[in-house]
Amino acid sequence: MAESERRKAKNEYKTFAIHNKQADIDLVSHEYLMDNPAQTGMAGDVLIGDDIIEIITNSIENYYLIYSAI
Fold first, then answer.
1. Which segments of 1-70 does DSSP mark as H helices, in order?
2. Taking Cα atoms as reference points, which of 33, 45, 41, 44 lies closest to residue 57?
């Protein structure tokens, strides 16, 4: 990401939330991945602006999905 894009993103996205479409960054869906103990974690979709980012993490805390997307 170019420096100008980073500055633009930093200025545009100020709030994040879970299931709150009013926020700049929103965790729109998530599911726990508990079938395999070696791969326990979460998968989810994070909306940033007009883009959906699909994230899989080994954490079971949903806010880590937002942090990973950012």
1. 3-12, 63-69
2. 41
